[in-house]
Amino acid sequence: MKHKTTAAHELEHLYSTGVNTVQTETNYRNGIDQLETAARAGHGKAALFLAQLYHQGFRVERDLQKAQYWQDLAYQQA
Question: Per-residue pLDDT for 68 more than 70?
């Protein structure tokens, strides 16, 4: 159980760091990478945040297919 808790904590940290980087840093690409890593590892909020970024075109090129991909992944993880 401790390993699962540690892994969840690490994913949450990766997610929050990624969000902060995307929102505040000039080099936001690292934040996108962190969010993608967290989302692929099962962090639903990270996948949903990526869906919103791609839908809005904030810090990434607007891409509705990518937005749909990340949204679908978020729903699968819910």
Answer: yes
